[in-house]
Amino acid sequence: MIEVKYFGAVAEKTKCDKETFDFESISLSQIVADLHQKHQLESITYSVAVNQKIVADLEQYFLQSNDTIALLPPFAGG
What does the pLDDT look like over 18-68, one tens digit per residue? Predict the structure, then answer.
């Protein structure tokens, strides 16, 4: 099972703060593409983290059972 957590504008757009999916094997890029289609996320800017680490190359990352994905809004520094 893979858990996806939504924060900020992404949570507002999806109208939920998390979802779970039952996948045996899937690439991070594929699940993000599926979420884009399901929730129409194309107008929102966000970063993707897996198990609390930002992932820059979604194409090369393959998820494992019990991974947690977070879709994070842009960070503001101060």
Answer: 999 998 778 999 999 999 999 999 889 999 999 999 999 999 999 998 999
Nearest to 63, CA basis, from 17, 16, 14, 22: 22
CB-based contacts of 50-55 (< 8 A; 24+ apart in sequence): 55/28
Residue 16 belongs to what domain range? 2-72
> Total domain count for the chain?
1
pTM for this structure?
A: 0.89
- Alpha carbons within 13 angstroms on the beta-carbon side of residue 17 total 1
| N residues, the chain | 78
Q: Answer whether 44's CB lies under 8 Å from 9's CB.
A: yes
Q: Is residue 78 part of a domain?
A: no
